[in-house]
Amino acid sequence: MEAHHKSSIAAAWLSLFSNIILTIIKLIVGLLFHSQVLIADGMHSAADVVASLASLGSMKVSNLPADEDHPYGHGKAEIIASGVVSILLALAALMMAYKSIEALFTPAEPPHILALAAAILSLIWKQILYVYTVRIGRQANSKGLLATAYDHLADVYASAAAVVGIGIGLLGLHFHLPYSEYGDRAAGFIVSLLVLKLAFEMGKESMYTLMEGNISGEKIEVYVEAVIANPAVKRIDRIRAREHGHYIIVDIRVGVPGDLTIQQGHDISREIKQAIMSKDPDVQEVLVHLNPWYEKEGS
Q: How far apart are CA 23 and CA 58, in angstroms?
């Protein structure tokens, strides 16, 4: 777990510095050569810098041990950061859409090859970052890092649209195609829609977790199998689990023979906890409640 946390922090720092560098490159090139889609992409990257800082801070907080005020730990800090990232993405998308529509009603500047080069650099760089961060994020089950990874994916969309838009403009300039110079601005609007969709999906997932939504049925089934494998368990009265950031908390009520001693019940509870945690390393807390079961009940 500690190794995964260190990898997540390293990936978050790499994302932060990459976003700063790409923001500077895209905004400078976009402003110099009047590329609306590159300026929009640069504004998005500027929002990414803030999002990366939020994710990095949340990952440090989420790894703090439980205390008197937060007995279940600080894992939800990453969920909050993921929600913040989704809001920043949505705001950036709306601004990009507004600027792109506004630019459609102004004379278009001819595209420049350096703008295309900057967009291609961003596309390749962000694709590599996305693959890297999403892999580390899934290994560590880090919601903050996964939010950063999806942020990179939004940049991949934006940069791909920039490449297409600027490329259309350059081809139109070479072959004298009418209105091709507006490809840059149209691409900027398309990018805003893609980023807005991604922001909505991220926000929806964050809200589901913050509202204590149950985890997937597949994982619940794994826990059920681990519990009923214990010969002392006669029935499962209730089982539920929720994500608490990068780890899972499981609550379970089971029926066991009512004539067992307190020590035997304690041992069974410990066995159930160990069985569930051995099946899923993401589980860090299992709360077991024992109900009495008698053979005459028939269940």
A: 22
* Tally of structural domains, the chain: 2
Most confident of the following: 86-90, 94-98, 140-144, 250-254: 250-254
User: Can you tell me whether residue 57 is helix, strand or coil?
Assistant: helix
DSSP strand pairing (235-243 vs 248-257): antiparallel
Q: 3-state class of 5 per DSSP?
A: helix
Looking at the fold, whether 200 and 276 belong to one and the same domain comes out as: no
Give residue 76's pLDDT band: very low, low, confident or very high (50, 70, 90). Answer: confident
Per-residue pLDDT averaged across 121-131, rounded? 91
137 and 245 fall within a common domain: no
Q: What secondary structure does DSSP assign to 100-111, as a single string?
A: HHHHTTSPPPPP
Whether the pLDDT of residue 239 is over 80: the answer is yes
Give dist(CA 279, CA 217) in Å, integer: 15
- CA 289, CA 266: separation in Å to the nearest integer? 10
What's the token pair of residue 32? Answer: 């110099």
User: What mean pLDDT do residues 87-98 have?
Assistant: 82
- On whether both 98 and 123 belong to a single domain, the answer is yes
Q: Is 37 helix (H, G, I), strand (E, B) or coil?
A: helix
User: 177, 210, 243: which is the final residue of a domain?
Assistant: 210
**Same-domain status, 182 and 260:** no
